[in-house]
Amino acid sequence: MPTRDSQHGAGDAHWWDRHPVAAGTYCGIFSAVAYTGANVCLRAVTHCDPVWVSCLKALPTVILIGPFLLVRMLRSQALVPSLRLLMVVVGAGLFAQLFGNVVFQWALGVVGIALTVPLTLGTMIASSALLGRAWLGEEVTLRTALALLVLVAAICVLSFGAPEANRAIAATSAATASGGTLLLVLGVFAGCFAGFSYCLLGVAIRYTSARGLPLSTILVSTTLTGFLVLGALSIARLGLPALRSTAMPDLAVMLAAGVFNAVAYLALAKALHLTGVVFVNALNASQTAMAALVGIAFFHEPATVPLLAGIGLTSWGLLMMRRNHVASEKARRDADTRAAASLDDEPLHEISTVASDVTHPG
Question: Which of 48, 53, 221, 252 has the fewest C-beta atoms under 10 angstroms from its C-beta?
Fold first, then answer.
């Protein structure tokens, strides 16, 4: 029979601790919406150097989360409980900055948002199933496998609309028009490789946070490393005069992309802590439909049959993934209860607070 203390403790638990599946779902969907906002901004500055764009995009996350590291330091709380864990996340973060963000930005200027986003997310979902199983021991059931197949099929169907989207890009981009088939192939490969890079970072976040590395440390270390390295590369390649000559409207859009990306990153980190890598990345697959709608509304990309069919398949796959995850989540959470009880939840609370403040500044 539960005691008064145990009932009191259960009542004091955070809502996301008592409903991890629902909280993880909401965080994953919110992350997808915010990432779509970032993608819109990034698509608008494809005429700028992709390394410089990616460098400035990393800055808002450092500014938003950095103060929490100072607070933890003043409270004498551990910022880096394990140097090995820090190296893991810094390495994965640097890889994602160079071969994820930079390559993704370049692909946006070659094949457009309607093709790049599906390619990136499709590769990320497939990689998540493999890496989550191999490195994290996460279960991939038959229903999950079928849902992933549906989502990958949706991405393939959406990609059939790429030629018309590419023609729209070529009409306004001399580089794309003159590059021909080779440049298009490279753009497709770039979108896929960016997806693998993001998946690698997602697995690293879940691996290190589950072993006690504060999420605030993870976010700042990955983005600060990217900002410094990409900034140095930008100066070496373009020079300070060229960087200073960047138009103010372009700078504003780059920084806006960084704000969207920071909020999405916070929500994604929380979702990864609450749920599995495959499920979170499947929720993020809704970016495919959002990217298609954005392409039609803002960048005048054609509303093709493959586009509409792909949106329907994406929704179906997400529903399949949701039902399967609800059924298996209780067993997984029960198995992790003892390990999770030893983790410091304060960083998670701090990061959730930041995300709330940014979303509702008033």
Answer: 252
